[in-house]
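Structure request: Xanthine dehydrogenase YagT iron-sulfur-binding subunit, Streptosporangium album.
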Amino acid sequence: MTNDRRSAISLQVNDVTHRLTVDNRTTLLDALREDLGHTGPKKGCDHGQCGACTVLLDGRRVVSCLTLAVAAEGTEVTTIEGVKHPLQAAFVEHDGFQCGYCTSGQLCSAVGMLAEHAAGWPSAVTADVSPDAPPPALDAAEVRERMSGNLCRCGAYPAIVRAVIEVAG
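Returned structure:
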């Protein structure tokens, strides 16, 4: 049995392949920020509670501070630097950010959330969760629930909700 605690991995980040060797305990967030220079995902709480580090793995949102870099091998990682979505303009138009610290996580989460909604995934506030039910309308309650894993210290929530609803509409 070897005591090697490092692994050579290949990460596909924003359509670019990166090969690196990481400690097996390295989080995806630390690999992105420290090894690859992608500083869009922020280290907020480092406990998966604030959502500032949210990125997309194969289009699904994850908190990168709780995801090991070795577990992301073989997936497509999209950080805010790789996002090109109408939500970005809507956030600006509706002033969906103030200090901007949470914005990259909010945007990645909103992109993932819209894809989840389009796929018919219900939320905790979805009234009809039967398999044949159509996707619920994305009203303010649905958006707030679906974005509840992303915190904003400045309280820009109403503007974020308006931006998401406009793009979803």
